Amino acid sequence: MLDKILAFTESVAAFFLLLVAVLTFSNVCIRYLFQTQIPDWFDLSKQFQAIAILWGIAVTTYRGSHICVDIVWEHCGGAWRRRIDLIATAATLALLAPMAWMIWVMVGNMGTEATSDLRLPLRYFYAVAALGAVAAAILAAKRILRLFAASVAPADDAAGTSNG
Fold first, then answer.
1. Around Cβ 149, how many Cβ atoms within 10 Å?
2. Number of folded domains in the chain?
3. pTM for this one?
4. Through-space distance between the first and last CA atoms of the chain, rounded to whole angstroms
5. How many CA atoms lie within 13 A of 136 on its CB side?
């Protein structure tokens, strides 16, 4: 079940990142060929990028595959690595949980804010991004539980670069 959730989370992040790329490429082509632009392309690309980032944070937090400095972690044994991972993941959760809450507060207080050209309500974009922030907080909590349950440090990823 968790694998399906992670696959879905990755797919959402990838889809919105693809939308950013397609929207930007299309706008450049249309601007060059027809001397016009796609209405709200910049506003939409910002919203899509925010959604992609927040959903991507969820997956990288759970897998521990974000960019990190392993100076101390590399020289520690398995038990200390797990302790470092627990502290780091707890700090990440301490950031992600209030952030998810505040994004939902923003969604509730959006009022009638909309994009500049098409007047698309921003509330819906913020809500999808907020779901990504909630997924990040939940997956960080799940990672903490997994690290507590592990008797040794989690296995490194296929590239051997993850600090777990």
1. 7
2. 1
3. 0.82
4. 21
5. 33
